Amino acid sequence: xxxxxxxxxxxxxxxxxxxxxxxxxxxxxxxxxxxxxxxxxxxxxxxxxxxxxxxxxxxxxxxxxxxxxxxxxxxxxxxxxxxxxxxxxxxxxxxxxxxxxxxxxxxxxxxxxxxxxxxxxxxxxxxxxxxxxxxxxxxxxxxxxxxxxxxxxxxxxxxxxxxxxxxxxxxxxxxxxxxxxxxxxxxxxxxxxxxxxxxxxxxxxxxxxxxxxxxxxxxxxxxxxxxxxxxxxxxxxxxxxxxxxxxxxxxxxxxxxxxxxxxxxxxxxxxxxxxxxxxxxxxxxxxxxxxxxxxxxx
Length: 298
Prior knowledge:
Blueprint: H1 28-44, E1 49-53, H2 59-63, H3 66-73, H4 78-95, E2 99-103, H5 105-108, E3 124-128, H6 132-141, E4 145-148, H7 191-196, H8 205-208, E5 211-214, H9 228-232, H10 235-244, H11 256-272, H12 283-287
Parallel strand pairs: 1-2, 2-3, 3-4, 4-5
């Protein structure tokens, strides 16, 4: 079915992008297939985490199915559908000695979400992508461990427009708002934006301990092998430094100038090894360390 039927409001879409289709939690075959997939993935990847997804449920898709229509007509809810799905898959993942990672939507979505009783805190990690530090705070306040992938800071595909061929948001002449050129999560996330982000901002010391770390995301609507290196590097290196080593010196000052020199040199080393990393400064700056910084007043 077409993902956004003519005349439909966004809330009545059948998918957030083409093509359409959700797994049906009421169909027993769903779990036959899923258990095979989960088992095979767990064998291929021996890490102790298993990502169970569960983000961005589109109500219109489920509501288009006759069996779900009957379920709702008899008093069922979409959230109960998701609870059925989680309750039918999470125990199997745990039986394979995995900790389950879900996107934050499973608990925080405004329309379709599960009760926290379905998500045991000792076996569940929530990955956040919405509302910056606000949703990180909500997750750890609820007692869950968090992985931070804020779309405001860590989405590497942002700022390159949109995939829609007839997006009227581009039709802007002088002045006016263009919604970041049609990119839903624009603007482009510079390495400085990534480097400066504090994933534990506004958290107490105990809450910060529940933040396991962060993960950048590069979604593939407008990314393929021809742009992969440049989209990932060296911005991901900036994240690595700030999460592993911190982005402040012993006096609490952001060490942006030092980081620029390191990342710039590292970028050219990657290029020499065949990685097509994006430039962050002219080559002259590598050859003349410190000369591309501003002079700060004392």
